[in-house]
Prior knowledge:
It contains 8 helices and 12 strands. By secondary structure, the chain is an alpha/beta fold. It has a single domain, classed as Purple Acid Phosphatase, chain A, domain 2, CATH 3.60.21. It is globular, with a radius of gyration of 18 Å. Keywords: Cell inner membrane, Cell membrane, Manganese, Membrane, Metal-binding. This is UDP-2,3-diacylglucosamine diphosphatase. It comes from Chryseobacterium oryzae. It holds the Pfam family Metallophos.
Amino acid sequence: MKRDVELVVISDVHLGTYGCKAKELLRYLNSIQPKTLVLNGDIIDIWQFKKSYFPKPHLKIIKKIISLATKSTDVYYITGNHDEFFRKFTDFELGKLKVCNKLCLTVNNKKAWMFHGDVFDASVQHSKWIAKLGGKGYDLLIIINNLVNWFLEKLGKEKYSFSKKIKNNVKKAVKYIGDFELTASELAIDNNYDYVICGHIHQPQIREVANKKGSCTYLNSGDWIENLSALEFHNNEWKIFYYEDHKHILKEDDSEEIREINNSDLMKIVTQFT
Length: 274
């Protein structure tokens, strides 16, 4: 039985990279029936895309998104830095699928402002090659981390995240995250938004931010590399969904409803756009 959800926001899936948890994301998407699905950037990783590596589980995610958009779900694809190529197709619409750089929606009679968040990242804006190099380094770190966690699981021990350890203990990383959240929130307050919803920093969060001009709710959907998280709005409430907390009740991959889209045909579409 699928859960009805009014609004779901996911970001930073990074399809086409070794760190992507496509199988887990597909299990999550197969468990819900969202009225609106917002893909908030870095869904397909164009920076690190290789025709030699785009496995079936990654293709199934694209199939699932197309399947939702051809049925009853409004799907918004907000472009990020890793899929910035799609910014050429801003305002493109295919059925219920729309491509945009930012999105404004009314949620619970309140104004929600959604964008990926790379606009705040100086390394992306001014030294793109450094950002790309960092992306490759991050991907390698995730590969090594996955190998370590495989051994830890075999030994019956808890998984360990190298990236989270770095983010939580390196002062510059902690400051960057704090500055990111504060900047996004202050801009939202200045523009009279009640919610500001981002991705990019792979740090799931829901928190209230206030200053002399007003207040807003800052939300971040996290990622599907490490946190395996999404934002859900239902019954007048925002929640962060964590896959690890629910994986025991999610069904295994059941893709019968999306088999009508041929894998080879879909791969031709993906390579055409990249």
